[in-house]
Design brief:
With about 325 residues, this protein is of the alpha+beta class. It is about 35% helix and about 20% strand. The chain has 9 helices and 12 strands. The strands form 3 sheets. Strands 3-2-1-5-8 form a 5-stranded mixed sheet, with no helix packed on it. It has a 5-stranded mixed sheet with strand order 4-10-9-6-7. Strands 11-12 form a two-stranded antiparallel ribbon. It starts with a helix and ends with a helix. The structure holds dinuclear copper ion. The site of dinuclear copper ion has 9 residues, from loops.
């Protein structure tokens, strides 16, 4: 549709039609209103100009029919637009559970991406076509915003928390990636590319033999061992296993099956154990105490003890044992 209209950049994700339709509808509505109101202004300005002979009888001060019409019709239109947009927004906020997860780090002024297998990229992000991709977005300094116009996808990246964004690329190609939040002098240089590859090409790109997935200078952990393997090593090195390994004698919440589950807290609230929950619980164990466990937590806080790369590996480890520790041996 937008090939002939040329109003938008090419559409290359599942969000393209969703966002474009509502944008077109809003534009059409604004056009109709502007032209309609403009026409009435012109018409009455001419008709009731000074000195015209048009009749000016005294009108009744209220007319219920007219007032109901101009109140209820716009109200209906506004509510319909709200429902339409909310439907799309809810879909954007509900990533599929089986999505391919890539960690994306924004920093002044570049983009870093890390795949589950350990592949690293700088100012580029390779994603598969026809498979949902979910990005867990992290900032190394200030607020950035991950924006791919061709995907109609944009999400702020905030320091001190994980945010996420999901999409499904629908068309192979190379697309612009921008930072859409002013983040300092180099903001306009904070650009990159998202490269959507057909599934077979993507698998090939991921494979250890691929020459284009060389380690990025300046980033630790550039071995291709896979983040879960590195997470398991950290789990031992940091002593997490003393309390959290299966069969440990110390009272600590179970980690297997934790990711994605609902956790009841000591204050009776319930939270879903997503990546952000895991991040917070590792860095600040007292932030959310699981129901039935002592407060303050027996676990030391790891804020300042581990860096963002190590934290992500621990999160990936916990995600990998979502069905139990035997998942690790299988995988
Ligand atoms: Cu990063 Cu603007």
């Amino acid at each position: 549709m937008n090939e002939w209209l040329r109003l938008f950049p090419p559409s290359a994700s599942n969000w393209g039609p969703v966002v474009d339709r509502i944008f077109l509808a809003l534009t059409a509505l604004a056009t109709v209103l502007t032209l309609g109101i403009g026409a009435f202004i012109l018409f009455y300005a001419v008709r009731y100009r000074a000195g015209s002979s048009a009749a000016r009888p005294r009108e009744p001060s209220t007319r219920l029919g007219i007032e109901l019409t101009w109140t209820l019709i716009p109200l209906g239109i506004a509510l319909a637009l709200f429902a339409w947009a909310a439907h799309g927004y809810a879909a954007m906020q509900t990533p599929p559970a089986d999505a391919y997860v890539v960690r994306v780090v924004g920093k002044q002024w570049m983009w870093k991406a890390e795949h589950p297998g350990g592949q690293l990229e700088l100012d580029e992000l390779h994603v598969p076509v026809g498979r949902p991709t979910r990005l867990v977005l992290q900032s190394q300094d200030v607020i950035h915003s991950f924006y791919v116009p061709a995907f109609r996808a944009k999400q702020d990246i905030l320091p001190g928390r994980y945010t996420q964004l999901w999409f499904e690329a629908t068309r192979p190609g190379r697309y612009h990636l921008f930072c859409a939040e002013y983040c300092g002098t180099g903001h306009s240089h904070m650009r990159g590319s998202v490269i959507a590859l057909r599934p077979a090409e993507f698998e090939e790109w991921l494979s250890p033999e691929a020459p284009n997935a060389a380690p990025v200078p300046g980033m630790p952990g550039t071995t291709r061992a896979g983040l879960v393997t590195e997470g398991a090593a950290l789990f031992q090195a940091l002593g997490c296993n003393a309390c959290h390994a299966p069969g440990a004698a110390v009272l600590a919440p179970r980690l297997d099956g934790l990711y994605g589950s609902e956790v009841r807290l000591a204050n009776d609230a319930t939270v879903v154990a997503d990546e952000e929950y895991l991040r917070e619980s590792i860095l600040y164990p007292n932030a959310k105490i699981t129901a039935g466990y002592p407060a303050p937590s027996l676990m030391p806080a790891y804020a300042g003890q581990i860096d963002a790369d190590e934290l992500w590996r621990l999160v990936e480890l916990v995600k990998a044992i979502r069905h139990g520790w035997q998942d690790l041996e299988d995988g």
